[in-house]
């Protein structure tokens, strides 16, 4: 392990603990209050308690709230990110401040990881003092990188007192199980290091994977044994690394790139080096010109420009240059703004003429409109992809594939389907009629070069899918009509007799707070649980009851959690019992009676349970209505404000005989309400099916009477 001579800063505040653990800030306060084993503060910074970071990590792991293999790399990334953000770290009342600016610190961290990868030695050995560590690093950098192509300049620039940084990077590498994983974790968390050059143009990993798959690099390498991959605007190399990830360990690729910013170019060189590419297999030029011969595969992005600042510029001229250099069987994938690549361009713009020329050349294989949010730093930036390929003598030259997935998230399934649609269309002997396509459709180029014609279309279902969908729709319509007939046959329902009458002595029922009822063991309350959004799915075993269900924004049963996930990640969760009440005060008082039980209650909702011995005082149905009545009544008489806590709510206390009679009436009301609600739901569904089928052309209406 790493040296203990160097005092690495390991203090962390409560907001930082919350970020590290992936919870809200108040949760940490709750942990401190409820769990005596939670680490005590060891220092403070202007009144803020500071905790030993290692102790916090150990507590999170021991209590099952974190996995050590995941949280330890995150801890070191978090602490290094705090340094880059200018947050002081350290002991002794004043936390130690970073001596390197964010850009210099990021360069130093990546250089140290690369150096450890190259010579496979600890950066901060046990035998060396703090000053000896830096001298040793400079000597090792001179031996590993004599020409200063990768890291020597960054290592030489380290201050003499920065040995703590080497120890911290050693810890990060050990926690991440290797230099490659550590380097990728640093770049995955690049926004923490406050270096805009690294994160301003970063793309979503799913988009990088899509570009790599569409490039056909893996197929090319499988056929020829090697592949030359290039990016003329590489940045920190996200697209190149995505291609490398898909190639696998048996390919022998060569990567060439151009990057105008020397800082990002050196970041990229180090990144390719830690991925195992030797000097002969990687070449990164500082500038805009690619080194070497024409690549077999090219992946790149057009530089971002605000729409209002483009003027008469023609960004597609760069795409034309790329297209003209493609050789037979070579592919290029270009990411750019959707309004330029797929939008309806005015005919007088130079970009419109260039786009038509490219389409007419027959080298545009596919055009894909993407969903928003794939460039996280610019969430409003809508993007699209062009796949360019040179196929000599193909009879499909006059056609192009169009796909529009802007209405759905770019999941792994969507990425896989898009790659399959494009790569099996006409490449490597494939024929368009041999494969069904999930998202893409063929279009004639002649139909797309008309003025102001967008290059987008929604895929209509194929004949088999349409036939199956129509059959399922007609079957569902028949089921709805049968159920509506059954409900209509029971239209003559017995009259409701509420047995309500006036009282001569009108006296309001006494009230008691829920807190008092809980203390008297007449009610039981327990809190809901925080469930990660990623663990709430649509196909599972236990319903999730939270604010969306109680307020009506989500139907009960839509959000569920798998019982395996529940047992593995939330072993302390208590499921509801039949007739438990689920209550929330956020954003308003809402109550739901869980008749079936076995549900997971999501914080901030809470559970009210009536002990069997107290069912004469309240029934679940009566208590739910009383709580709803309290919520509608608002502020109690004589109160300055409405109750803001569940235990402050005042519940009317009814005589046991009245509770029994009221429960009988509410049961009848619930039954009638359920029948009415079911009929409304069926009518709504029938209307949706009819409108959808008629408008998309899959259904028609006959002349038979609608009623009767």
From TrEMBL:
Q: InterPro entries annotated for this entry?
A: SAM-dependent_MTases_sf
Q: Which Gene3D superfamilies does its entry note?
A: Vaccinia Virus protein VP39
Where on the tree of life does the source sit, at the highest rank?
Answer: Bacteria
Name assigned to this protein: N-6 DNA Methylase
Please tell me the species this chain comes from: Planosporangium flavigriseum
């Amino acid at each position: 392990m790493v040296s203990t001579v160097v005092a690495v800063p390991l203090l962390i505040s409560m907001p930082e603990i919350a970020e590290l653990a992936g919870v809200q800030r108040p949760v940490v306060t709750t942990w401190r209050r409820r769990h005596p084993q939670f680490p005590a503060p060891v220092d403070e910074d202007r009144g803020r308690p500071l905790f030993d970071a290692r102790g916090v990590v150990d507590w999170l792991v021991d209590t099952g709230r974190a996995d050590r293999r995941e949280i330890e790399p995150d801890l070191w990334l978090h602490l290094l990110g705090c340094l880059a953000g200018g947050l002081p770290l350290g002991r002794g009342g004043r936390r130690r401040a970073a001596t390197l600016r964010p850009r210099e610190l990021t360069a130093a961290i990546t250089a140290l990881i690369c150096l450890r990868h190259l010579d496979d030695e600890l950066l901060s050995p046990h035998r060396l003092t703090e000053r000896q560590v830096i001298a040793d690093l400079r000597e090792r950098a001179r031996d590993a990188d004599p020409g200063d192509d990768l890291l020597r300049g960054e290592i030489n620039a380290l201050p003499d007192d920065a040995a703590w940084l080497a120890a911290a990077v050693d810890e990060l590498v050990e926690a991440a199980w290797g230099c490659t994983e550590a380097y990728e974790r640093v770049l995955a968390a690049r926004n923490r290091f406050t270096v805009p050059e690294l994160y301003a143009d970063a793309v979503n990993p799913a988009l990088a994977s899509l570009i790599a798959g569409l490039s056909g690099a893996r197929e090319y390498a499988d056929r020829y044994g090697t592949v030359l991959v290039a990016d003329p605007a590489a940045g920190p190399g996200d697209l190149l690394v995505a291609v490398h990830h898909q190639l696998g360990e048996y390919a022998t690729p060569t990567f060439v790139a151009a990057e105008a910013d020397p800082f990002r170019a050196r970041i990229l060189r180090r990144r390719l080096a830690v991925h195992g590419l030797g000097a002969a297999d990687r070449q990164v030029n500082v500038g805009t010109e690619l080194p070497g011969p024409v690549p077999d595969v090219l992946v790149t992005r057009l530089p971002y420009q605000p729409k209002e600042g483009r003027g008469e510029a023609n960004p597609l001229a760069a795409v034309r240059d790329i297209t003209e250099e493609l050789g037979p069987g070579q592919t290029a994938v270009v990411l750019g703004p959707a309004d330029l690549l797929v939008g309806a361009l005015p005919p007088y713009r130079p970009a419109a003429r260039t786009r038509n020329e490219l389409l007419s050349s027959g080298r545009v294989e596919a055009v894909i409109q993407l969903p928003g949010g794939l460039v996280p730093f610019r969430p409003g930036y809508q993007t699209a992809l062009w796949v360019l390929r040179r196929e000599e003598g193909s009879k499909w030259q006059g056609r192009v594939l169009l796909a529009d997935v802007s209405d759905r998230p770019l999941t792994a399934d969507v990425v896989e389907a898009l790659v399959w649609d494009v790569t099996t269309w006409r490449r490597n002997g494939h024929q368009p009629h041999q494969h069904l396509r999930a998202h893409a459709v063929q279009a004639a180029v002649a139909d797309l070069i008309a003025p102001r014609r967008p290059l987008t279309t929604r895929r209509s279902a194929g004949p088999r899918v349409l036939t199956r969908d129509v059959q399922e729709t007609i079957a569902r319509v028949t089921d709805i009509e049968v159920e509506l007939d059954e409900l209509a046959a029971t239209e003559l329902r017995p009259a409701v007799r509420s047995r309500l009458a006036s009282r001569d002595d009108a006296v309001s029922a006494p009230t008691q707070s829920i807190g008092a009822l809980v203390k008297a063991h007449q009610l039981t309350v327990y809190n809901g649980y925080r469930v990660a959004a990623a663990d709430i799915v649509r196909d599972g075993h236990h319903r999730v009851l939270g604010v969306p269900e109680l307020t009506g924004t989500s139907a009960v049963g839509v959000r569920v959690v798998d019982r395996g996930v529940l047992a593995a990640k939330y072993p302390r969760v208590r499921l509801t019992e039949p007739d438990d009440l689920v209550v929330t005060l956020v954003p308003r008082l809402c109550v739901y009676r869980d008749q079936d039980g076995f549900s997971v209650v999501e914080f901030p909702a809470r559970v009210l349970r009536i002990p069997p011995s107290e069912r004469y005082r309240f029934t679940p149905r009566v208590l739910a209505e009383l709580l709803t009545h309290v919520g509608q009544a608002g502020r109690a008489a004589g109160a300055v404000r409405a109750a803001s806590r569940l235990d402050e709510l005042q519940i009317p206390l009814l005589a046991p005989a009245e509770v029994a009679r009221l429960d009988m009436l509410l049961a009848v009301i619930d039954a009638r309400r359920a029948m009415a609600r079911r009929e409304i739901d069926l009518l709504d569904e029938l209307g949706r099916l009819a409108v959808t089928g008629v408008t998309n052309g899959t259904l028609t209406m006959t002349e038979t009477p609608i009623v009767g």
